[in-house]
Amino acid sequence: MSILVLNGPNLNLLGTREPGIYGSTTLAEIEAMCRALGAELGHDIAFVQSNHEGALVDALHAARTVHDGVIINAGAYTHTSVALRDAISATGLKAIELHLSNTHARESFRHVSLIAPVCVGVIQGFGPDSYLLALRAMAGILARAST
Ligand code: CA2
User: What is the pTM of this model?
Assistant: First the structure.
C-alpha cells in the first residue's frame, strides 16, 4: 500500500534553525528514515512538503486516488486551516496528525487543532520519532482495513 507523508510550512527549515525546539535532524533525514521504515513495513512512501496552504489541499485531493493513508504534519496550519480540515474530510482517506513538538506544552494558540477531529489520531512530542510512530500506526490501520 501507499502512504503519503505531508509536511506543511517552514518544515523545510528543520535542522537549520531553532534546534532547541525542533532538534537538529533535517527534513531530508526524516524522509530517509520514513522511506527505510516504509520498506521494512512493505509500504510505498511519498514525501511532500509545501509552504502553501492551497498546495497542501491539492496534494490531499491528488492523494485520494493514489495513496491509502495520509500522515500529516500541517505545521502552523494545524491551528488555523479550515481548508485543510475540509480537504482531509473530503478525501475520506485515513489520516494521522503528527507533530515533532508537544504542542500542549507550548503557547496556548498551539493547543487547538482544527484537523484533529477528522484524523484517526494524533502523535506528537517525540521529535523525528513522531514520524516513525505515525507510520507504524498507519501500517496497523491499513492492515486492519484490508482484512
Ligand atoms: O511540532 C511540530 O511539528 C509543529 O507542527 C511545527 C510547526 C508549529 O507551527 C506547530 O505548532 C507544531 C512549525 C514548524 C516550523 O519549523 C521550523 C523548523 C526550523 C526552524 C524554524 C521553524
Answer: 0.97
